[in-house]
Write a structure and sequence with these properties.
The chain has 857 residues and is mainly beta. It has an 18-stranded antiparallel β-sheet that branches. An eleven-stranded mixed β-sheet has the order 13-14-15-16-17-18-19-8-9-10-20.
Length: 857
């Protein structure tokens, strides 16, 4: 009897256990883009059981989802904005790989799919349509409370924090035009990939050529007052086609440069300021719909809101946001730039971010971030570039004490950081790579060894750097190779510059040119030496025998030079710009004093031998001279707060501004020394320049350059400030575009060049124009100067005429349209005053149209 009783209870136990196991059976799956393989986070999944009950779940930031208690599951319906609804019956043996088809490429649905969709089309929460409320939008109340509590919820509120960050970036090319597919380089790469991946898989998903991949594990530190940031890269792995310096790219791809905080009013992406959907004035630019008041994720309740901009062309987002009940904190957001946004070369950009809840109550911090970018194809026969970035944080600590020395360097790479070990990355990577991803990434090293690929890389390097690389030297720059002007005739030039493969300390360069009309050879050479990379200390010497032009002897600042303008100065009507022969000897030493300040000392000796009539007499008791020499020592200090240096194996310093809106200030003092190295004059020059970009919200961005100069000593006019005019047909933002060369000369002056980039403020509102993605801008140039009369009186013997502004300001106002065909800019400029006749008897032009080329996102 006892045995029967025991067997009975054992039977009951096994039955209950079997039933419980069956009832709690768990299935996992993920949702992906059927065309690109991209994971689809925050995708709504509706689950209907056989008894008619409906449950909802949602994919996480990695596109994965979990289904519990699948024993009674009958069907699954999946919907995401921009994709066709997916409906399928549930099969226990079914692999839950939900491949969603983009709407633009979707085939006809099967009869069973249509039947399932029709049967479920009234399921609450599946069909999400934007509805414009007649009265008060219920989403506003939630957003108002969100804004009220920003101060408490914003992760930037913490006095300090530290966390470990894993980041991964992948860049590939796809969607090739038919002409590209016929080229040898494409066929070579395709053959290489087909040897490692099933050709049917390539045909199914389209050929994607990986060109770059990187992984970093870093410790991130932040301190609010004074504000400091630092990243210590502990481990890094980088591989890319055409990338010589993996260390540099590890820093460029670090989380320091890809950090988005939607609590801020504006999100800076690719140099543009996008309006956050959670900005303080959210009602002005966005439309919202409250989708779900009681969404539940992991036992927590959230409000779900959809948003989109009122004007599709604005730099704004559309997507979905989850806001926590009670605290009104951001939980997660899925934001995509509007397809019609006025931004160049970008087809789509998505940002998916999920916050993680800290141990402390209702405190949130960014946990996972995914960025997916696809470039627009410039033409049907071109290609698209895909960028995927993923970051995950852990070990978050807030309001902690951080040693000040941590912030001595913005980015630090540990000596043993670089590692290629697959074992290490497999153990420390928060997610796993698919077999296909591993195989594709492994082909990068093989692709860049293909001869056809190397040829393309050389051409790309030429376009970017201006030099054609031949082993340890580069030939160029190509912009100066051929030119023509009315003094030299056709001018040919050949130059070279060594690269890091020659030496990581020494930099040698030189050039030779010849004019077929003046039949004269010009030449130059230089030697530079890098004493230290941290801090950066560099020195060098140079010599040149070439033609100079008085019109371009104005005081310039290297941070604002225009390479195309400089190349054009060797062309055109050089005789009007007063050419002269010059032998120039120069030595310099430059050093970073700290992260924001750089000092530079220059010793130079120049000769001046004009090929135009010139004579100068300092006073009646001195001889008349027709040539002269100058010896100068120049001291320059530049201050750039927020500047960030990157460690680089290349032979030039790489600096980035952590905050582009900080000003740049340059102070320059020049001392001319008579009788030292045969100099003819004693004189002093002082110049100050301030440049800055100013964000202005809806008004776009303002850019200004303010310059002041003073020359107290009497010197020949080629050594005074001959304000830069513009006799060319293209626009120069740092010149006075309606002023002629040598029209005004000063020994003391203040100038302002200002541009208001309105972006699409006006053009985005015009029904037909907004489709062209044109942008509008306003310019204003102002100059106030004076020339001491004693500098001119009884000084020149060749009837040279000099005009002083006589403290009457010169002004010109312009307006224009840019982004025409994505690169052309047209400026309409009005000269507002100084309209008197010039020395040649002609009145100056009051209006002009100038063109230029600029490539901006």
């Amino acid at each position: 009897m006892l045995k029967k009783t025991q067997l009975y209870f054992i039977f009951i136990f096994l039955f209950i256990s079997q039933t419980a196991f069956a009832q709690n059976k768990i299935a996992q799956g993920r949702a992906t883009n059927s065309e690109t393989g991209e994971l689809l986070p925050y995708t709504r999944v509706a689950l209907k059981s056989k008894d008619g009950n409906i449950h909802f779940t949602e994919t996480d930031v990695d596109g994965k989802f979990l289904i519990e208690n699948t024993i009674n599951l009958d069907s699954i319906i999946v919907e995401k904005t921009g994709f066709e609804r997916l409906a399928l019956g549930y099969d226990q043996a079914l692999k839950l790989e939900l491949h969603l088809i983009p709407k633009s490429n979707s085939p006809k649905l099967t009869r069973r799919q249509k039947k399932l969709i029709d049967r479920e089309k009234n399921i609450e929460g599946i069909t999400l349509k934007m509805k414009r409320k007649k009265y008060s939008n219920p989403a506003y109340e939630i957003l108002e409370k969100f804004v009220e509590r920003k101060v408490n919820n914003n992760p930037d509120k913490y006095k300090s924090y530290r966390y470990e960050n894993y980041s991964r970036m992948e860049i590939s090319m796809s969607d090739f035009g038919e002409k590209i597919k016929k080229r040898k380089v494409y066929k070579d790469i395709k053959n290489l990939i087909e040897n490692q991946i099933d050709s049917n898989e390539i045909e199914k998903n389209k050929l994607s050529i990986p060109i770059f991949a990187s992984e970093n594990i870093s410790d991130i530190y932040f301190q609010k007052e004074p504000e400091n940031k630092s990243e210590i890269i502990k481990k890094t792995k980088t591989n890319g086609i055409g990338i010589d310096d993996g260390t540099l790219f590890s820093q460029l791809m670090s989380s320091t440069f890809i950090k988005y905080n939607f609590y801020n009013n504006y999100i800076r992406i690719l140099g543009k300021d996008f309006i956050s959907p959670l900005n303080d004035n959210f009602k002005i630019q966005y439309d919202y719909e409250l989708v779900d008041k009681h969404a539940v994720v992991d036992g927590e309740k959230y409000y779900v809101l959809k948003f989109k901009p009122f004007r599709e062309s604005d730099l704004a987002f559309e997507g979905t946001v989850y806001i926590a009940h009670g605290s009104y904190a951001l939980f997660k957001i899925d934001a995509e730039i509007s397809p019609k946004a006025n931004i160049n070369f970008i087809h789509s950009l998505k940002i998916q971010q999920e916050m993680t809840k800290l141990d402390s109550n209702d405190q949130w911090f960014p946990g996972k971030t995914r960025v997916i970018l696809e470039t627009a194809k410039p033409g049907k026969e071109s290609l698209a570039v895909y960028l995927k970035y993923y970051a995950s944080t852990k070990n978050i600590e807030t309001d902690i004490e951080i040693e000040p020395k941590i912030f001595d360097e913005k980015i630090v790479i540990l000596n043993d950081a670089e590692t290629e070990s697959d074992v290490f990355w497999n153990e420390n990577r928060p997610d796993s790579l698919s077999v296909s991803e591993k195989t594709m990434l492994a082909t990068i090293s093989k692709i860049k060894k293909l001869p056809s690929v190397k040829s393309y890389l050389d051409v790309i390097d030429l376009l970017i750097n201006g030099y054609y690389k031949v082993g340890k030297v580069g030939l160029g720059p190509f912009l100066y190779t051929v030119g023509y002007n009315d003094y030299e005739g056709t001018r040919l030039r050949m130059g070279f510059l060594t690269n890091k493969f020659f030496s990581k300390k020494w930099i040698l360069g030189g050039y030779v040119s010849y004019g077929f009309q003046d039949q004269a050879i010009k030449y130059g050479a230089k030697v530079d030496y890098i004493f230290s990379r941290d801090p950066w200390i560099q020195g060098g010497v140079s010599y040149s025998h070439d033609l100079g032009q008085v019109a371009f002897q104005y005081e310039d600042f290297s941070s604002r030079r225009n390479a195309i303008f400089d190349a054009f100065t060797k062309n055109g009507r050089m005789n009007l710009r007063k050419p002269f022969w010059q032998d120039s000897y120069q030595g310099y030493l430059q050093a970073d004093i700290n992260k924001s300040i750089t000092g530079k000392i220059i010793l130079k000796h120049d000769t001046f031998d004009p090929v135009f009539p010139f004579s100068y007499q300092e006073n009646p008791n001195t001889e008349i001279i027709k040539t002269f020499n100058t010896t100068e020592i120049i001291a320059e200090t530049s201050w750039k707060p927020g500047r960030q240096h990157l460690e680089s194996g290349n032979n030039k310093q790489v600096s980035l501004k952590d905050n582009v809106y900080q000003p740049t200030l340059i102070l320059r003092y020049t001392r001319g020394m008579k009788n030292f190295l045969n100099g003819d004059f004693n004189y002093n020059k002082v110049h100050l320049n301030i440049q800055q970009i100013v964000p202005m919200g809806l008004l776009g961005r303002g850019e200004y350059s303010l310059t002041a100069g003073w020359i107290p000593n009497k010197v020949p006019y080629p050594l005074l400030e001959n304000h830069l005019g513009n006799g060319f047909s293209f626009y120069n933002k740092y010149a006075f575009n309606m002023m002629r060369f040598f029209e005004f000369t000063s020994n003391k002056y203040v100038s302002l060049q200002y541009t208001q980039n309105l972006e699409g403020l006006i053009t985005n509102s015009l029904p037909l124009i907004k489709k062209l993605n044109w942008r509008n801008h306003i310019t204003f140039n102002y100059l106030l100067g004076d020339l001491d009369p004693s500098f001119v009186k009884n000084t020149y013997q060749n009837n040279e005429e000099f005009k002083s502004l006589n403290r009457k300001p010169y002004m010109e106002l312009g307006y224009g349209i840019s982004n025409i065909f994505r690169f052309l800019r047209i400026d309409f400029i009005h000269r507002l005053n100084h309209l008197h006749h010039l020395s040649n008897g002609k009145a100056p032009d009051k209006f002009s149209v100038k063109i230029s080329a600029q490539i901006r996102l």
